[in-house]
């Protein structure tokens, strides 16, 4: 053995001893490190532990994060993302490998954070978390305001002062970290905690506030848990994070966005003194308006008042008095007038005589005028009679006889209408237009067929007369 | 407005009460309501005004903070100055 190895005073350590020694040294000297780098490959094992590389241009640091911390990561670790990791260094003896055991990790660098912010914003917008229809109406005059913010610092003081100036109400503060790894969880708990309160302590409106800071400082307000808690809050929520130029995702999801914490107080409560003034003015106007209204009605009532009964009767009574006073005089006047008219109606015989004379003359005149008129009337009647006579003549059977027809009668003067009754008679008389002839039937010769045919129209004619 | 009138005054929020008071003032000022009704709405208006004022007068800044107790969060008065 000596021949194979040169003698030495150095005590040879076992690998394990050396590794243990190294491990102690590293763990003692690097028990708290904060390191910034870009995430290389990221693997989350089935155990839930995360294995990743942190790197920059020249070096790589193997990093492991145990399951418990991985679950609390406020973001999704992705390759290429710049992060700040906090933890300790250790050595994995089995691989001759030093590594970081990270307790927490957060995104770093404005560029990386902005990109992440945009990505999340798109995602939440696509989900409809920012949709206007989800915005709740803020109460006009809240009785209780819940504030989620840091209990220290200017923010809570600003809010309380402004609320006190405008409209002092009850304010319940939910103390929460507003920066760092635990901030998102506490803010989420605050929003959810206020919503869980029932009864008199339940706020009517929430303010989630933080002062200004870098995008990294404000990052908790971009975390999904905070955004979702704000979205799900049943109590209307006002966000006031950072300055007016800073925008965080809670501002998109909140029901109202205030540019500053002071602005949140102004949105939350109206100005009491103004409202008192307004209410007082309304009260005065109400009184004046009613007074005017009743005044108008009173005026109208006055104008429409019924006259007193005496007032109604007096003119009539007066008229009656006048009338009764003038009645005897009027009666007297009437009699006098009548008497006057009577006296003017004296009858004179001379006038009567002249009346009679005039009447007689009118009678004579009428008689004279009547005579020729009567003559003319008689002549007219004569003419009418003559024309009627002529008409009668044309229609009489005598004229028919003149046209050649005859009438046959028996001895008693009865019309013979048929040849058979003619044959049965002893004698008959035939009337012509110019006179009658007696005839006897020649019994031996029966009437020919033509004869009754001839006689028949005669008979018919005769019946007309 | 019609259904708001049905609501008892003390059940109205400040905002509702103020809005209704404004309507009543306008109606009464316009003189467009009957006399009998105008007295009724005046009374309602006066009640609304009293309701609003009581809400305004009871104002007092009371600051509390949440403390996590064994039985969940409770409130205790606090001073942040």
Can you tell me about this structure?
- The complex is a heterodimer of chains A (465) and B (81).
- Helices cover 49% and strands 18% of the residues of chain A.
- Chain A has helices spanning 15-29, 67-71, 110-127, 154-166, 183-196, 224-232, 249-253, 261-268, 272-303, 309-344, 349-395, 397-402, 419-424, 450-464; strands spanning 33-44, 50-55, 60-65, 82-92, 97-107, 144-149, 170-175, 205-210, 237-241, 256-257, 407-410, 428-432, 435-439.
- In chain A, the strands form three sheets. A five-stranded mixed β-barrel of chain A has the order 1-2-3-5-4. Chain A has a five-stranded parallel beta sheet with strand order 7-6-8-9-10, sandwiched between helices.
- In chain A, helix 4 packs parallel to helix 8 (261-268).
- Chain A starts with 14 loop residues before the first helix and ends with a helix.
- Mean pLDDT of chain A is 86; it is low at 444-465.
- The mean pLDDT of chain B is 84.
- Chain B contains three helices and two strands, in the order H-H-H-E-E.
- In chain B, 56% of the residues lie in helices and 17% in strands.
- With 81 residues, chain B is of the alpha+beta class.
- Classes of the chains: A alpha/beta (465), B alpha+beta (81).
- The A-B interface holds A 139-141, 151, 156-157, 160, 163-164, 167-175, 190, 193, 197, 201, 272, 275-276, 278-280, 282-283, 285-286, 289-290, 292-294, 296-297 and B 13-15, 18, 21-22, 24-25, 28-29, 31, 33, 35, 38-39, 42, 45-46, 49, 52-53, 55-56, 59-66, 73, 75, 78, 80-81.
Features:
A: 465 residues; alpha/beta; five-stranded mixed β-barrel; 14 helices; elongated; disordered C terminus; B: 81 residues; two-stranded antiparallel ribbon; cytoplasm (chain B); Exonuc_VII_ssu_sf (chain B); nuclease (chain B)
Shape of chain A: elongated
What oligomeric state is this?
heterodimer
Uncertain runs of chain B with pLDDT below 50, 5 residues or more? Answer: none
What is the strand arrangement across the widest sheet of chain B? Answer: 1-2
Mean pLDDT across residues of chain B: 84
Rg calc of chain B: 20 Å
Distance between the termini of chain A: 198 Å
The residue ranges of chain A in which pLDDT falls below 50 over 5 or more consecutive positions are: 444-465
Domains of chain B, number: 1
Overall SS class of chain A: alpha/beta
Give the number of DSSP strands of chain B: 2
Kindly name the structural category of chain B.
alpha+beta
> How much strand of chain B?
15-25%
Strand order of the largest sheet of chain A: 1-2-3-5-4
Helix content of chain A: 40-55%
Give, in order, the helices and strands of chain B. Answer: HHHEE
């Amino acid at each position: 053995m000596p021949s194979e190895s040169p003698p030495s005073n150095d005590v040879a350590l076992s690998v394990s001893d050396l590794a243990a020694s190294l491990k102690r040294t590293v763990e003692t000297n690097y028990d708290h490190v904060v390191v910034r780098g870009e995430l290389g490959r990221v693997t989350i094992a089935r155990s839930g532990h995360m294995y990743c590389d942190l790197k920059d241009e020249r070096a790589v640091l193997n990093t492991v994060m145990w399951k418990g911390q991985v679950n609390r990561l406020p973001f999704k670790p992705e390759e290429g993302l710049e992060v700040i990791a906090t933890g300790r260094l250790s050595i994995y003896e089995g691989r001759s490998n030093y590594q970081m055991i990270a307790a927490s990790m957060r995104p770093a660098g404005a560029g990386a954070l902005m990109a992440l912010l945009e990505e999340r914003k798109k995602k939440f917008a696509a989900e409809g978390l920012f949709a206007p229809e989800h915005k709740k109406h803020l109460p006009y005059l809240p009785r209780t305001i819940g504030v989620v913010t840091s209990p220290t610092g200017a923010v809570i003081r600003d809010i309380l002062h402004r609320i006190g100036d405008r409209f002092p109400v009850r304010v319940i503060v939910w103390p929460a970290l507003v920066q760092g790894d635990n901030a998102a969880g506490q803010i989420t708990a605050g929003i959810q905690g206020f919503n869980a309160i029932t009864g008199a302590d339940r706020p009517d409106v929430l303010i989630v506030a933080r002062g200004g800071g870098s995008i990294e400082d404000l990052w908790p307000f971009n975390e999904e848990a905070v955004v979702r808690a704000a979205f799900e809050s049943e109590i209307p929520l006002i966000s006031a994070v950072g300055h007016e130029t800073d925008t965080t995702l809670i501002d998109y999801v909140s029901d109202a966005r205030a540019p500053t914490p002071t602005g949140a107080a102004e949105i939350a409560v109206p100005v009491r003194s103004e409202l008192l003034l307004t209410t007082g003015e309304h009260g005065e106007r109400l009184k004046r308006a009613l007074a005017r209204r009743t005044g108008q009605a009173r005026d109208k009532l006055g104008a429409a008042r019924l006259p007193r009964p005496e007032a109604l009767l007096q003119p009539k009574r007066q008229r009656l008095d006048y009338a009764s006073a003038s009645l005897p005089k009027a009666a007297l006047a009437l009699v006098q007038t009548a008497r006057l008219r009577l006296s003017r109606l004296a009858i004179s015989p001379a006038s009567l005589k002249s009346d009679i004379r005039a009447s007689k003359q009118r009678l004579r005149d009428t008689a004279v005028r009547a005579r020729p008129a009567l003559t003319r009337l008689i002549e007219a009647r004569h003419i009418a009679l003559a024309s009627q006579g002529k008409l009668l003549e044309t229609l009489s059977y005598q004229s028919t006889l003149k046209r050649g027809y005859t009438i046959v009668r028996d001895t008693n003067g009865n019309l013979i209408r048929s040849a058979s009754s003619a044959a049965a008679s002893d004698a008959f008389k035939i009337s012509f237009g110019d006179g009658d002839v007696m005839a006897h039937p020649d019994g031996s010769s029966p009437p020919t067929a033509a004869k009754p045919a001839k006689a028949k129209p005669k008979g018919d004619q005769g019946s007309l007369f | 407005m019609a259904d708001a009138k049905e609501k008892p005054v003390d059940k109205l929020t400040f905002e509702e009460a103020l809005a209704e008071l404004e309507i009543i003032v306008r109606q009464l000022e316009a003189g467009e309501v009957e006399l009998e009704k105008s007295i009724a709405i005046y009374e309602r208006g006066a009640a609304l005004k009293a309701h609003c004022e009581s809400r305004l007068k009871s104002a007092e800044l009371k600051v509390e903070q949440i403390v996590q107790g064994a039985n969940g969060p409770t409130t205790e008065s606090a001073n942040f100055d």
